[in-house]
Fold this sequence. Notes:
The chain is α/β, with parallel strands linked by helices.
Amino acid sequence: MKPLLNLEDDLTVPPPGLMRVPNTVEICITGRCNLSCRYCFYADEMSALKDLPKERWLTFFREMGSLGVQRVTLSGGEAFTRPDIFELIDSLIDNKMRYSLLTNGTLITEEIVDSFNAGKRRQRLDSIQFSIDGSCAEVHDASRPPKSFDRAMRGLRLMKEGGFPLAVRVTVNRYNLHDLENVARLLLEDMGLSSFGTNEADRFGSAKCYGQDVMLTPAERLAAMRTLKGLAMRYPGRIAAAAGPLAMAKMIEDIEDRQSRGETGRLGRGTLCSCGGAFQKLAVLHDGTIVPCNLLPDFKMGEIGRTPLLEAWLHGEAINALRRRRSIPLSSLPECRGCGYTGFCAGGCPAVVYAKSGRLDAIDPGVCYRQFKEMNYVDL
């Protein structure tokens, strides 16, 4: 698929100053998952693609190591459904890379914890990220299969007791909106975690089917913004967000603070520049397809073992389209024409933009400050 951009540039030519190789490669190591969650962004790819055998991955890991790739993030599906997961991890280590894992946590047992103690598996591990979406089974399991909360929390506690570097992601949705304070108390006070991150269920994968059954309405999103802003003040520096309600609340606060000082923009804004991922990393789906991001599975740039990783990184049209996107002024877009706030804006996640509009040269209405103001919301 050739991304839709109003540019005449040759997209096989990388932008000046691009690093020689990606710093990080995100790998969906399997499409298999033991859960079926109501907002899983990867649900479409799970059903359509087949897992690569171990040997194909090992060959690719050697290629990454020879290029000097520094880090790999392993996800799925659920990474721990692969019986050879630790063989894959050992290969990453043998090829001089560090790694992170994303997991739903439900398959972690004492045996899994013990397996991390072999070789350099712990030394090279940057973090294990768990998905926790409620303070109790009633809330968490509403958007996930029954009994997943108890199993996920058991896995999280085992890893916490083992002293592993942990991260937790809370995906805000209609089921946990009114439980966010309890979630913060559970993770930060009861569990004693240093922090957790938040994002928001959006129109990817299974959420496209469940729609407003899981995604927030505008009014619910505003409520989430207020709650998370209050929690961020209560727990300074311990609740993070690169996207979703808390990120939007922080953006609005920053814009209004700058406007109060007479500013009309912010350095580095005013173009479709919200995501810099294409300058640092790319992704591989579980069938070996190389893409700029696992949220853009249709933007195919080749296949591992057949397309050299360096060729995809430097000359892939899809990833260069994302890089060139950052030079598009918001003022040139029909939906932003005449807006007095473009100097503060970055346009939103390109994957969300593409999911909603079928274009890359567009914005995500969900992060539009003008639309927020036009809805006559009171101050956060």
